[in-house]
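User: Hey, quick favor. My workstation is busy. Could you predict this chain's structure for me?
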Amino acid sequence: MTKDKFSPSFHWPAILCGLFLFLTTSFSKAQKDKPNVLLICIDDLNDWVNHLDGHPKVQTPNMDRLAGRGVAFTNAHCQAPISNPSRTSFLTGLRPTTTGVYGLGPWFRTLDEYEDHVTLPQYFEQNGYQTLTTGKVYHDAYPPEEGRKDGAEFTKWGFHGGFRPRPEEPFVKETGHPLVDWGVYPEKDSQQDDWKVADWAIKQLKNPPDDQPFFLSVGFRHPHVPLYASQKWFDLYPEGEELLPEIKGNDRDDIPRFAWYLHWNLPEPRLAWLKMHNEWKPKVRAYLASVSFADMLVGRLLNTLEKEGLKENTIVVLLSDHGYHLGSKDISGKNTLWHESTRVPFIFAGPGIPEKGKQSDQPVELLDLYPTLTELAGLPQKQGLDGHSLMPILKDAGHERSRPAICTHGPGNHVIITEQWRFIQYADGSRELYNRENDPYEWNNLAVKEGYAPIMENLAEHIPESAEPAPGNKVRLIEMIDGQPYWQGKKIPEDAEVPMEYE
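Assistant: No problem, here it is.
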């Protein structure tokens, strides 16, 4: 008699178990074969990086080493020249003009429309990655401390750290702000919180997950103020050397008055104050020392990738959230739409990038990080992002891009950047125009000269429509009401003295 096809002699439990093991093993192998991602975020780093030629004396061998392994973008720009909106933008893939997040607040999760928005690390987690973070990746205040727990935003949270340690007596006592300080401190690199951030990241690289690829984001706070570094980093930049950036006297004579309002009443001192107190060169020197200290930390991560055999299967991206002035346009700090505030290092290296040691001067945005990384990792493309993948350039560094880069600082204030031009339009309608090729320092505002109106009108077509500031926005910007500038609800008189000194 023929046996029933469901007879126990066919050992269905064993067959199903074997099939399950085969499928799970295959799935695990497929997951493990995906590239890892190491995202390195540096705070307040402008183009003073050797391969960007921002400062002739700067020493950044490790960032340059990374650039030599992939593609370095020399015309890359943030979407906002201040931390929270910039980081919110490249981690959500949305412009400040989309979310309405323009200032140091709010945390975007407090906005109903974006409460459940899938960020870059969350998208990787949804696609089988273990996501880890340490240091300053989001703005330091966000997510709120109760949200910094495993499974919230990232699979695993590491050492957060801060701007520590700090001396009992600040080096610059007159600035009136605890972070606005610079000097030789502390004695050992290992005392710095940023060193401890690197330590935590290195520990993860030495113990990666067995059955998952990882997405590790590491945020270093140097060279954000306070500009503290040990003596050996200052020794790279001897006091006797010429370290000051090249600036032009009366550089602001041909720019709109409204330009001052983007840098109004901030704790960073003006150039006039730095000169008055003989602190210009000490601050520049401390910034350079802090940049080289941050570069050393980048080197520690890259060395660990090599030692642990992870280099060939790990995509490495390095970026800064925005730039920083050190005397140009008579200021120090950020919060402007000039290139010192918006231009940032942006490097991609690792698997899937055939170009090695190439540079591209195409206008690109930090906003492009999200779609580029998902494509590099072979993930389904996320819909609804404002950025565009850089893969065409990563495959061919000579590829030309048709769209400009755009940076925004509050509603109505934008800069449009192409290969040739930088066009700024402020909320009151005033404008600046610079030729990148002939005037890299932006000393000659062509907007006040005849014959450039057609160029500006063409560039102005790229200005995005500005969303209203989101509830809880902490924006230190002038509001335009009925065509008049207002500061904190009060109209600014036409003869008001625009602050030239630190207050």
